[in-house]
Amino acid sequence: MDKIFLKLENIKKTFGGVQALKSVGLEIRAGEIHCLAGENGCGKSTLIKVISGAHDPTAGSIYIEGEKIEKLTPIDSIRKGIQVIYQDFAVFPNLTVAENIAMNHALLTGTKAMNWKKSRELAIQAMEQIGAHMDPDVLVERLSIANKQMVAICRAIINDAKLLILDEPTTALTQKEVSMLNTIIRNLKDKGMAIVIVNHKLDEIYEIADRLTILRNGENVATGPIGEFDRKRFIKCMTGRDVEEVYYRPEDSREVILKVENLTRKGSFEQVSFDLKKGEVLGITGLLGSGRGELGDALFGIAPAGEGKITLNGKEVTIRSIEDAMKARIAYVPEDRLTQGLFLDCSIQENTVAASIQKYLKKGRLNYKEMYEATQNWIQKIGCNAKSPKPLIRTLSGGNAQKMVIAKWLNTNPALLVLNGPTVGVDIGSKADIHKILRELAEQGVGIIVISDDVSELIQNCSKILIMKNGKTAGSISSRELDETKLSRLLTSEEETV
Question: Which of the two ends of the chain, N or C, has the fewest CB atoms closer than 10 A to its terminal CB?
Fold first, then answer.
């Protein structure tokens, strides 16, 4: 049996009467990849902060390499070989790759002056260990997200890390970058390092994990080798309910909701044509830089197309601005809900009516009663876990916040709803709820377009998938003719679909 590096027994953590962790136990072994999964708010982040010394547990015991730790501070945690890489990577954009990688080493060793030559040597040595290829003298702000993550990993391993914790490491990565990251993680595992990955994406977990621990409502509900968890058990443990994997395959319709002809925006996409029929959910996908997101922006007037024709429900529409799109009853759920979809310091109610505020104006005054009732109705209808419309939207979990972004646009009574990355950063239960909402809307006659690189999301929910490459459509294909493997191959190959 592999040596146990970290052992937690009966860990409890309470914040102002709210019990975030309830007698959680966890064992992490040297030379294993251990996935920590659970829906938003289950206690994963709190548990990581206990391991890193950022939070003192209210009760319970921590053992590192067999030694009971009475009090664990962040610097103690680092000295004992524990390194955490959070989603923002905590890199310094105005410093070079070498300076970022050597920074923690300098702090840990008490170095008061930066030795530039030594820093560069450390950076090159660390990059060689993981097979990263970056200029040590380039500013980190100029790096891709994947390379910023490589910098954070290099910084961790030069501090003699024995346990590396990666918090949602694949959120902003392409499939190719995820594959590269997995190779690096396996190499570190082979060298005897313990790896903990916080993730809730089933396919990625099955690809990389040796063992799995699932938290729900602050409790450890299941732990074991990954082979003991089929998809059904995994989802049941995560959500506490049976979530069926439904494949949406509507009956063929001749009624065209949306027809796009030769839509072009120089530098982004060109000669894009497709149609969307009643009952269909149209998927649009492609690798980063394919033009998929820019197409969504054009349909909503954020960055309008310069040429082409858009016909919605039999009427030609001109989209030169967001105002034009809204007048045409087009709604758009952006990929980044935090900066583009929500007013975080406003209430759930204020966010829900933000795009439809005009209909609550009565004789120059807002009808707050109608606004409250409408929001309450959407909270119930869309399955948002919120007690009332009054709390700030930032208090909601990622999945519930995304539901309310969708509710905001449904409150405008759209004819066409375009969603860019509708379930990015959303847990399994909320993801299933959102997919169900989209399928029901399509059945009711609302035009639904899903822009995504999540192949399982596309295969399950889209009746037809449009593939984009280098700003052009590489063809569309019925999802009846696809599976996840074939779609992934089409995305990364030069092969045309039609």
Answer: N
Q: 310 and 267 in one domain?
A: yes
C-alpha 331/C-alpha 318 separation (Å) is 15
In a domain, 246, yes or no: no
Percent of the chain with pLDDT over 90: 60
Domain count, the chain: 2
Q: List pLDDT tens digits, range 342-390.
A: 898 999 999 999 999 999 998 889 999 999 999 999 999 999 989 899 9
Question: Which of 207, 239, 271 is the C-terminal boundary of a domain?
Answer: 239
Percent of the chain's residues with pLDDT above 70: 96
493 burial class (0-12, 13-18, 19+ CB within 10 angstroms)? exposed
Judge if 222 and 265 occupy the same domain: no
Instruction: Indicate the helix (H) or strand (E) that contains 447.
Output: strand 447-451
Tell me the per-residue pLDDT of 22-50, one tens digit each, with 9 for 90 and over: 999 999 999 999 999 987 778 898 999 99
Q: Which domain holds residue 373?
A: 256-492
Separation between Cα atoms, residue 66 and residue 5, nearest integer Å: 7
- Is the predicted pLDDT of residue 498 greater than 50, yes or no? no
The residue behind tokens 């709604």 is 331
Whether residue 249 is contained in a domain is answered as no
Same-domain pairing of 296 and 168: no
| Token pair 């024709």 in the structure block, residue | 309
416 has a pLDDT exceeding 50: yes
* Contact assessment for residue 204 and residue 211, using Cβ atoms and an 8 Å cutoff: no
Q: b/e for 136-146, b at 16 or more Cβ within 10 A?
A: beeebeebeeb
Taking 90 as the threshold, does the pLDDT of residue 399 lie above it?
A: no
CB 429 within 8 A of CB 237: no
Q: Residues 461-490: what's their mean pLDDT?
A: 87
64's enclosing H/E stretch is: strand 59-64
Q: How far apart are CA 327 and CA 182, in angstroms?
A: 46
| pTM recorded for the entire structure | 0.71
For residue 346, give the H/E element and its range: none
Q: Span 4-26, mean pLDDT?
A: 93
Judgement on whether residues 167 and 84 belong to the same structural domain of the protein: yes
Cα distance between residue 399 and residue 402, in whole Å: 5
Q: What is the distance between the alpha carbons of residues 431 and 192, in angstroms, rounded to a whole number?
A: 35
Instruction: For residues 170 and 39, give the distance between their C-alpha atoms in angstroms, rounded to a whole number.
Output: 16
- pLDDT of res. 450: 97
Tokens of 200: 């809730």
Which residues share a beta bridge with 6?
A: 28, 64
- Count CA atoms closer than 13 A to 425's CA, side-chain side: 17
247 in any annotated domain: no
